[in-house]
Every structure is written in structure tokens, then in C-alpha cells.
Amino acid sequence: MSSTEDDRQVRISKIAGRYLVFDIDDVAYIRRQHGICAVFTGTMPQNPTQNVFLGLPLELYAEDAKMLLDRKVAYIADDPLEHLTQLKSMDDETRKSYLQSIKTQRRTAQLVFNEAKAQSMAKHKDKRKPKQPQPSVVVPTELPLSASSADGVAAAVDQEEEGGAEFLLESSSSKPLKTDASTPPQKPLVKEKLPAITPTTSNAMISNGTSNPDVENHTALPLYSYLNERGYFITPGLRFGGDFSVYPGDPFRYHAHYMANSYGWDEKIPMLDLVTSGRLGTAVKKSFLMGGQKPATEDSEAGELRAFCIEWAGM
Question: Where does residue 304 rank: exposed (0-12), middle (13-18), buried (19+ CB within 10 A)?
């Protein structure tokens, strides 16, 4: 892990009770270093009904946010309040700095575009159809001319030279010559035209804060942390009938192995729930995992967490 990632603080924006990450670098960091996938929720304004490929922002579980806070690699910001406060108190220097950062991003986008265009042109250069070779000109051998034909050719040449001279005189008289041919014509100054961009974050305008609003403590947090610490990746499990879908590695590489539910230590679990969850897990080729943590007492803190897997063997 690089030193920049060691000092990295992920900004989690709390908006309307949801925990969102807008920076793509933060998204890559928490996925690569902390095994957190979460869910992309962004969509395109031109096509809001599409639900196949979603983009930024990334919405975190409350368990994700709490776990990152406990590891001291993130902070939670009250986004609406911070933006309103910063916009009201922004001075000229901060505003110029923000505009300069936007211009830098536009220049970077232009460089990336130019590089991609050059690579595309070089790639397709060899695929273009080669030009057909020009037919060679055959110079006829000199033939002896008769006196009459020689006189005719000489007259035609003299007439062409006279016409050319007359044309040169007419052109020179109608158009004045340039006094200084070595001086190139000056081109008008063109203002640098950069591509327009839409910033995905406002980090350049808002400084890194340390505000950490309270994160509601869910009962599923112990099981969630237990699985994450053992290298499992967790995604929503509604489509498989559980609270979580549990993967042995990155979901880009593996199928889910478990559908998981969290229960309280003393919570009564109906037998029908065990049967239906076990049968459902087996039907979708997964094991049903359930777990709970022993609560804290006066003599000890929150203790061990126990997890069990159930498979329906009669199908």
C-alpha cells in the first residue's frame, strides 16, 4: 500500500439519511483495500429509466460507513450544510482557486482526448487502402520532322510564349506585388478552447472536514464485520431472499456462495423461516448463513459471534 493510500480519508456524504461516495478514487480504494462493493445508484439524465449500468455515486450500507469509521479511514460529512456554509462564506481567493482547478481538469481532459485520438489514427493508418500506383509515362522516341511540321511546331510554341507573357503582364498590373515576401501572414490570436466538463466532486471547494454525524448501529453490523474481516465481499441479498449475498472474493470474479441473515443472540427464529431459507438457498445453489453476536454484559464486552450454514438436503 502506498503512502498516499495510508493517509487517505474517504469522504462519505450523508444526504437524506443515505451514505454516498462521489469520488471514483475513493470507490476504487475501499473496494480494493477494504472489500466494500456497495451499490452504484447514479443514472444518466438523458436516460433515467435505464437500470443495467449505473454509475456514481456509490451508496454504502450503514454497516459499511460504520466499519470505515472504526478503521479511521473515512469521515462522514453533512453535505448540504457544508455546501451552503461554504458558498455563503467563499472569498475571492477560494473562488479563483476553485475555478483554476476546474480549468486544470479541462486541460487534462483535452490531453487525454488528444492522446486517444492520436492512438486511434495510428491504429487505423495501416488499415487504410493503399493508393493505386500511377501509370508510368512512356516518352516517345524522337522522330525526324519535316520542314512544314517543324515550322508549325515553332509557330505554336511562339504563340504560347507570347500568350504567357501577356498573361503575366496583365496579372502583374492588376495585382500589386508584396513588398516583403519573407514575412509570414499574421494569424489572429485564438483563445484556448477547452472541452466542457462536469465535476463529480466539490473537493476543491470544500476542505476535508472531520464532522462525523452519528451512524445508526444496526444489528447486522457484527455479522457484516465478521464476514468482511475474513475476506468476504458483501452485496444486497434481496434477489436471493436474504439480507446479504456473500462472495468469497470480488463479485467480478466469483459467484455468491452464501445468502446471509443476521439475528439477535436471544431472538427466537421461527422454524418455518429456517426451512424456507434453507430450501431457498439450496434452490439458488447457495448455502443459507445465519449468525448473531453474544451481547455485552456487566462483566464483559460484546463477545463471540457464531455463524451457521444450513442446506436443504431433500431436494
Answer: exposed
Contact 69, 217 (CB under 8 A): no
- 8 A C-beta contact, residue 76 and residue 39: no
Look up residue 21 and give its amino acid. Answer: V
**The three three-digit cell numbers of residue 166, written as one number:** 501577356
**E strands in 140-221:** none
Catalytic residues: 247, 255, 286
What one-letter code names the amino acid at 207? S
- Under 8 Å between Cβ of 11 and 203: yes
What does the pLDDT look like over 188-214, one tens digit per residue?
A: 555 667 888 877 777 777 766 556 667
Q: Is residue 158 part of a domain?
A: no
Instruction: Assess contact for 18 and 26: CB atoms under 8 A.
Output: no
CATH of the domain at 269: 3.40.1350.10
Say how many domains are in the chain: 1
Contacts of 55 (CB under 8 A, 6+ apart): 40, 42, 43, 44
Q: Which residues pair with 76 in a beta bridge?
A: 12
**202: nearest Cα among 307, 286, 68, 77:** 77
Cα within 13 Å of Cα(143), Cβ side = 7
Rounded distance, CA 191 to CA 202, Å?
A: 27
- Asked if the structure places residue 269 within a domain, the reply is yes
CA gap 281, 310 in Å, rounded: 8
Residues 71, 43: Cα–Cα separation, whole Å: 30
Residue 244: domain span:
219-315
226: in domain: yes
Q: Which residues pair with 259 in a beta bridge?
A: 245, 288
Q: What are the angstrom distances between the C-alpha of 174 and each of 72, 158, 180, 216, 305?
A: 83, 24, 18, 88, 100
Q: Is residue 16 part of a domain?
A: no
Do 75 and 65 touch, CB atoms closer than 8 A?
A: no
Question: 125 or 72: whose pLDDT is higher?
Answer: 72
pLDDT, tens only, 241-286 = 889 999 999 999 999 999 999 998 889 999 998 899 889 888 888 9
